[in-house]
Task: inverse folding
């Protein structure tokens, strides 16, 4: 019996089973993706310029607590580079009768948790934004930015279509995000199981040969959770014990800023404004954020 097995066996009952399961899981996660089944990450680099994600975006999340029983979050697009729509969306794009592109300002509808138990659902766009920044994949964000690939019928109907949007939108409920916002850490086994399932579902709505390898999917998932929790536990006040540590108690709207860089595959977060978000350290899968003396720290 190996030393690791012996160490796990020295534990009692369920703890021993959990320790051994964790060991086997880590061995599996450490393996490279099978060479006989390579996957290319989705990309839009071969799409028309007007149908690509901007390579850098800055957004502001504003959480409105004027109704303390039903806080409402709005997301605003502040900056995008490159911006091919300086005058707003293109009208009658390529003769489709549809508009194409975005304008700065509010993206999407205001969101509430729509739950009797606050669970951070109103911040779940953090997951979509992270998948876009790290994987160049988010039918939901592509729809919000109105950059669906209308010139390619298959990509428009499948990759960017309603089924792909619905599949991605269901991540929040399937992931049980409320547990993470409440401070319960996702066990590795559940995390990898979800990443594997999500990767399999994404394969159905991207061209053959494209997909999200397990390791990339798991990383995006963890960073997306970090971003969502950063929003929920700061401006969302879901776990706050003393609001005065980091917000003005006389105010009813609280803001945080997020910067996304698709070229660097990086997500950044700040409570100190858009420029501070651009300069912040990228969130990592193991980044933990906490407050002390009115300041936010990462560890």
Result:
């Amino acid at each position: 019996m190996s030393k690791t097995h012996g160490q796990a066996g020295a534990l009692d009952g369920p703890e021993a089973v959990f320790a051994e399961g964790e060991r086997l899981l880590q061995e599996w996660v450490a393996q490279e993706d099978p060479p006989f089944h390579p996957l290319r990450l989705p990309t839009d680099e071969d799409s028309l310029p007007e149908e690509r994600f901007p390579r850098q975006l800055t957004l502001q999340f504003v959480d409105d607590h004027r109704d303390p029983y039903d806080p409402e979050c709005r997301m605003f697009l502040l900056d995008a580079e490159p911006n091919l729509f300086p005058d707003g969306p293109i009208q009658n794009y390529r003769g489709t009768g549809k508009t194409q592109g975005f304008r700065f300002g509010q993206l999407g509808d205001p969101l509430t948790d729509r739950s009797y138990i606050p669970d951070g659902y109103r911040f779940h766009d953090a997951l979509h934004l992270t998948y876009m920044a790290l994987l160049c994949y988010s039918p939901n964000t592509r729809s919000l930015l109105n950059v669906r690939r209308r010139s390619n019928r298959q990509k428009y109907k499948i990759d960017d279509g309603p089924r792909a949007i619905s599949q991605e939108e269901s991540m929040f409920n399937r992931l049980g995000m409320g547990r993470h916002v409440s401070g319960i850490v996702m066990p590795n086994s559940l995390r990898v199981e979800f990443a594997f399932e999500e990767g399999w579902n994404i394969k159905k709505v991207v061209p053959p040969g494209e997909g999200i390898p397990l390791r990339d999917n798991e990383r995006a998932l963890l960073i997306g959770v970090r971003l969502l929790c950063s929003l929920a536990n700061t401006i969302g006040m879901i776990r706050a014990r003393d609001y005065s540590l980091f917000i003005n108690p006389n105010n009813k709207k609280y803001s945080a800023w997020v910067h996304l860089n698709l070229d660097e595959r990086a997500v950044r977060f700040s409570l100190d404004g858009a420029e501070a978000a651009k300069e912040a350290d990228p969130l990592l899968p193991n980044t933990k954020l906490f407050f002390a003396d009115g300041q936010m720290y990462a560890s």
DSSP finds eleven helices and seven strands in the chain. The longest strand covers residues 72-81. The chain has one domain: 46-298.
